[in-house]
Amino acid sequence: MKLTVKDAARLLSVSEKSIYRWIKDGAIPAYQVNDQYRFNRAELLEWATSRRIHVSPEIFQEPEGGDSPPPSLTEALRAGGVHYRIGGHDKAAVLHSVVEVMKLPEEVDREFLYQVLLAREALGSTGIGDGIAIPHVRNPIVLHLSRPLVALCFLENPVEFGSMDHQPVTTLFTFASPTVRAHLHLLSRLGFVLRDNDFRSALMRQASRDEVMQALAKAEAKIAPPAAADARAGATAAQNAIEA
Question: Is pLDDT above 60 for 227?
Answer without folding.
Answer: no
